[in-house]
Design goal:
- The chain has helices spanning about 1-5, 15-35, 45-50, 50-65, 80-115, 120-125, 130-170, 175-185, 185-210, 215-240, 345-360; strands at about 260-265, 270-275, 290, 335-340.
- The chain is mostly helical and about 375 residues long.
- A two-stranded antiparallel ribbon has the order 1-2. Strands 3-4 form a two-stranded antiparallel sheet.
- A hairpin with a 5-residue loop joins strand 1 and strand 2.
- Helix 4 packs across helix 5 and helix 9 (about 185-210) packs antiparallel against helix 10 (about 215-240).
């Protein structure tokens, strides 16, 4: 799955365009945050970066939706902005609900450490007696360990919850604990999640280093898309889900296959046959190799046209040699098919035959 995940973001027909658009959106987000951090008057630009960030989150949900249950999925297009914003908002809300219990416990401890104050000292400063502080510190430590374990578990099952929302298009499906847990404990999902972690740990950091060359933003978007490919494939296999119609696309991703090189098209004379799409050298189209002709008997031979009296006796001396070559244009096969003759080739052969007859007369 690792190789498939790496190759997935740029697959045709929409992959290249989506990577370009997604990379540019990441550039806009980083530029807005960078300018917002320069001075207080520009702080409002941080809010401007929220919309592009939600667009990217919505696209990740779309990737999960279009990869679930498909053997060879292709990247969706970066379109339907309203739908992307809606999916992004719901995905962020699901993440916030799942992670909030751990954040409530670990958040104050992290802020206390960031301010450089020890937690027992902070309790003493707010007027809590030392005896109560001595009892509270071990309890808080135990809660911190449990909260950390909960956050790790929530991060593990969170992709399943988001995938459930993406698949059913119902936010409530992300909070149905039984199917979420049953999908998370399967080997298929565990393998996919492990590959996604490997992409984040061993590949994603290099994209941050390349941001100075701008190419890092596009690579970052590609790796993030590969991670969601792993989520969709893992959840689809774990819960045995069938593909859902991609109503936001121009067509369903299952139909995104290369068109056949041969199609049934009318030839120059109106008959139908099979020919290649691409023209020959010089721009001349291929004529059909076999075409159906109208009329004929039950064996497919065409009806003969004659002006002779049908009651007249035929001259036995005028019988043609049955072994002689027949006109290629009149040779037919069963079902009323006959080979199409290239008009250019036929004309050239007729001209050569006429010239040879004149040469015989001169002799």
């Amino acid at each position: 799955m690792f190789r498939e995940a790496i190759d997935y973001p740029t697959q045709r027909p929409e992959g290249g365009r989506s990577v370009i658009v997604g990379g540019l959106v990441l550039v806009v987000i980083m530029a807005s945050l960078g300018v917002a951090g320069l001075d207080t008057p520009y702080a409002y630009l941080a809010a401007v970066a929220l919309l592009p960030w939600l667009l990217v989150r919505g696209y990740y949900v779309r990737v999960v939706r279009t990869t679930i249950g498909r053997d060879q999925p292709t990247p969706p297009r970066f379109g339907d902005v309203r739908r992307l914003l809606r999916d992004g908002v719901v995905a962020v809300g699901i993440s916030a609900v799942y992670l909030s219990p751990g954040i409530v416990v670990l958040g104050p401890l992290a802020v206390s450490q960031a301010l450089g104050a020890d937690f027992p000292t902070r309790l003493t400063d707010v007027g809590i007696p030392e005896n109560a502080t001595a009892v509270a510190v071990p309890i808080v430590g135990l809660l911190a360990v449990l909260a950390l374990m909960y956050v790790i578990g929530a991060l593990y099952v969170l992709p399943v919850a988001v995938a459930r929302f993406a698949y059913t298009d119902r936010p409530g499906a992300a909070f149905e604990i039984r199917p979420v847990v049953s999908g998370a404990v399967t080997e298929d999902y565990a393998t996919a999640w492990g590959i996604s972690v490997a992409l984040r740990v061993f590949v994603l950091p290099f994209t941050y280093l390349l941001r100075l060359l701008l190419v890092g933003f596009f690579l970052q978007f590609m790796i993030a898309t590969s991670v969601r490919y792993c989520y969709g494939q893992g959840v689809g296999a774990a819960l045995d889900l069938d593909p859902v119609p991609a109503t936001h696309e121009r067509s369903d991703p299952d139909d995104w296959a290369l068109r056949s090189a041969v199609e049934r098209v009318p030839s120059d004379d109106g008959a139908f046959g099979s020919r290649r799409r691409r023209p020959l050298t010089g721009g001349r189209e291929l004529t059909p190799a076999v075409r159906r002709v109208a009329g004929g008997d039950s064996r497919g031979a065409p009806e003969a046209e004659t002006d002779a009296d049908p009651t007249s006796d035929a001259d036995p001396t005028s019988d043609a040699d049955p072994t002689s070559d027949a006109d290629p244009t009149s040779e037919t096969f069963g079902g009323g098919f006959r080979p199409a003759v290239d008009p250019d080739r036929t004309g050239s052969e007729s001209e050569r035959g006429t010239r040879s007859e004149h040469e015989d007369d001169d002799d």
